[in-house]
Write the structure tokens for this entry.
Amino acid sequence: MQKNIKPIKLSANKTSSNEQLSSAEMGKLWATYMGNSMSKCILSYYLQHVEDEDIKNLLQNALQLCEEFMQTTKEIFEKDGFPVPEGFGEEDVNLGAPRLFQDEFYVHYLKYTAKAGLSIYNVAIPLVFRKDVKEFFIHCMHSTISLMEQIKEILINKGYIIKPPMIPIPEKVEFVQKDFLNGFFGDVRPLHALEIAHFYDNIENNVASKTLIMAFAQVAKDEKIRELFEKGRDGTTKNLERYMKMLTNENLPTPTFLDHLVTGTTFSPFSDKLMLFHKMDMFTMKIRAFGNSLAVNGRRDIALLYTNSLMKVAVFVESATKIMIEKGWMEQPPKALDRKNLTSK
């Protein structure tokens, strides 16, 4: 039986809902609003074409959470006199556009974006202290976990996904030998469980990312943005092939490509601004995933693989950021006071 941890009772209340927002609270609330305003546009479009009733209900649940998270964030901002971000709206989505994806892709997409949401809330919870913000992010975390369970249930029951690879249970406790770090020369040990888990996770993420950027390259209107999407698609494909090879070399199964779930339409349902922001955001999430993968890795060849991937992804994010700035599309996150340029009145 699980035992509850002992409560700590302090007399002074230092976390009321009336104190000023901290930088962490501002930043995470801002990111939450921006991400969910984008997701609201995308999910609203998906719902125009979905036919599978289970997937339709899943999309409706996800959209409901988006709208709820946006509303709560907006209320906190307005309470504190914080300007509500412009984000994305009706001008960034064409609900009458032809179908761009098959129903199955919606479930894979939701899993990837739910992971992104969980990473925001996971980092936020230890950093936020104001009572209303803390309770909000805890609610976001619990709600997104519940949504993730529905996503996984559909993926498994409809045969859309394979589970992470199975490996033998260890026969005894062992300690690593001096060849543990080998990757290029000498005796190279098999992948351990954490390395396998992160390869699987990165493959799963990049499969969804590649499908999305392939679709965006197909419908983007701006030539420069389309070319960047094509570079991102090709780079993601190369990374995927390298990750898959690491598992297949161990005779382990890998998730498969989802390219067939993109239709042939060239009519864009989304603004170039939304698509570019989305891919910039998704590629930024890859950087965090690579960091997590490097943290549990032991082999030198794997470290080099992830380091190279990280550098290439960083180049894409920088290129996307420059275009966003050139177009006047990139909203300024909350920032510290620029004391060097203060002027007296």
